[in-house]
Amino acid sequence: MRSKNRLMDVRRAPFFAVAALGVTPCVCAQPGAHEIGTESPWRIGLAFGYGERSNPLVQSDNLPVLVDVDVAWYGDRWFFDNGDGGRTLVDRDRFTLNAIGRFNSDRVFFSMTDTEYVEIFSFAGTMPPEPIEVPDRDYAVEAGVELLSDGEWGFAQVSASHDVSDTHGGYELDFNFGRTFRQQRWFVEPSFGLSYKSADLNNYYWGVRPEESNLALAEYEAGAGVNVRAGISACYQLTPNWRFVTALRYERLNNEAAASPLAEDGFVKSGFAGFSFRF
Question: Could you give the dihedral angle defined by the CA atoms of residues 94, 231, 265 and 59, in that order, rounded to the nearest 10 degrees?
C-alpha cells in the first residue's frame, strides 16, 4: 500500500494548481515528508501570478486567473480534491482504483459570453438585426471510476464518468500520461491526454436547439468526438514551501464541437506563470 502523500501526488500530478485554467504545473517534491513520517491528510496551497485560458465560444472572453486556491484532503479511503470527491476502492503498489464524483468542466466556458447583434443582408434589403446569443448551459454532476498508476516510466490516469444529475445524460472517457524529470531544484513535466465525449454530452454543450436558433445562429446537433491535449509544466523549488511555477497547455476540440456555430475556435490554449505557496 502506498503512503497518503504518494497517493495524493500521483492523483494530483495532472491537476495541481491553477485548476480554473485547466493548466497543469507539476508537483514539486517536499523534502523529508515521506522519510520522517509526518504525512498530513491536508494539502493547501495558494498560487498567484498571471494565467489565461482561451475561450473557444463565439462572443466570449478569455478566462484570466491572478490567484488560485488549492485545497485537498486525503484520508485512509475518502478524499476531496478541489471539487472532486471520491473513495479508494483498491490500493496496490502498482495501481490505485478510485470511485469519483465531479462537475463537468465544459460548462466553465459559458460563464464568459456576451450578446451581439448581426445585420442579415438579402436581395430584399437589410433585415432587422439578429442576436448571436450563446445559450446557457448547466453544470453536470458526474460519477465514475479512475485507475491510477505510476513508476519510473511516469504516471498514467484512466477514468470513465457518467452524468448522474440528468443534465446531459452522456459520458466521458479520459486518458492522461505524463512524466516528471528532475534536475536539482527544477522539475519539468510534459503530459499528453485524450478525452472521448459521448454524443449526448457533446450535443448538450455544443449543439444548438431549434428554439435557440435564428438566422445568425443555425440549428446544430453534435455527435461524439475526441479532444486531444498536450502540455508542459515546470517548477523551481525555492524553499520547502515556496516555488516558482509555469505551465502551457494546448487542447484541440473534437471535430463535432469545433464545427458547432457556438465555436469560434477549434482549440483551447492555456498558460500560467507565477509563484505558489504550500502551507
Answer: 90
